[in-house]
Amino acid sequence: MTPEPPIPPQQGRERPDPHEETHPIPRALLVLVPLMVAVGAAYIGQADLDTPADWGDGRQAQELRGGPAPKAGAPDGAALFAALCAACHQTSGQGLPGVFPPLAGSEWVNGRETTAAAIVLHGISGSLSVRGSTFNGAMPAFGSQLNDEQIAALLTHVRSQWGNSAAAVQADTVAQARETHKARTAPFGGDKELPPHD
Questions:
Q1: pTM, to two decimals
Q2: What is the pLDDT of residues 152-173, one digit of tens each?
Q3: Are 152 and 173 in contact, with CB atoms under 8 Å apart?
Q4: How far apart are CA 3 and CA 44, in angstroms?
Q5: Are 114 and 176 in contact (CB under 8 A)?
Q6: Residue 114 is part of a domain; what is its CATH number?
Q7: What's the CA gap between 115 and 107, in Å, rounded?
């Protein structure tokens, strides 16, 4: 019988592999996880899915937005702005410097209703001066996407936010702007092509 070879020093420094033995998971965790699953399932099971969700303090979204609630069946200008405009003009109405102009205090927003309607109907491509600064972004046309009532609601919302206090826009005004510029097939080429705003 040959003697076992000596253990090298490097191997002697090694620790044995850890073993979980009979309790690989703490017992408290084994109780806690099923309890959390049961509570979550009970919460979901009792949730009322047939009514609109309230905010945490019980106010509805319209109350947080401020202003009068839209009439039943009427377009919601705030919702249209959030869906179509906020990504560029920002929820604050301040836009992005050099690219997307601010709506807050804008002479185009607070000026002639028909000009504001024409901008939303046909969009803008090119240099635009707003509050003494020049912007070179592009605004898409929404004339084929939105009807006159929706554009009127959107403009009314924008003209009453962020310190703006211009008059509400009526669907008839949008219809007038649509008729006036019906031959246009391209966006306005900046403020040089836009109708006057004052």
A1: 0.62
A2: 999 999 999 988 888 999 999 9
A3: yes
A4: 69
A5: yes
A6: 1.10.760.10
A7: 11
